[in-house]
Amino acid sequence: MNDEALIYTGKATPDAAADRGWLLGHFKRPGDVRHSEDVEIKWGVHPRGEERAQWVTGEERTALQVLISGRFRLEFPGRTVVLAEQGDYVVWGRGVDHSWYAEEDAVVLTVRWPSIPGYRADA
Questions:
Q1: Is residue 1 part of a domain?
Q2: Could you report the per-residue pLDDT of 6-21, keeping only the tens digit for each?
Q3: Gene3D superfamilies attached here (predicted)?
Q4: Does 4 fall in a domain?
């Protein structure tokens, strides 16, 4: 394989828009350097008032979410976490149900591992 096939450059916002926000993960085609079954990375651009269509239940991954801009609320059973300042982040483990809501226009970077099919919430 030549080195060009192992290097990808892009811009997060337009690349993310092409695949529901996801920049890297199992859903990229095999052979694409962005294909991974180990980790998923999402550049989430969320307008004020956008919310997850349904709660994630039976979570099998660990996740890290970092606020880039705006204000973003995560809901967990019995706990609410608000990411309000650039760099605020939250990590949650396997088995933690969750949902989210954009309190302001927000950009968040999400990293989940491992990358496994499922959890897609269609509007």
A1: no
A2: 898 999 989 888 888 8
A3: Jelly Rolls
A4: no
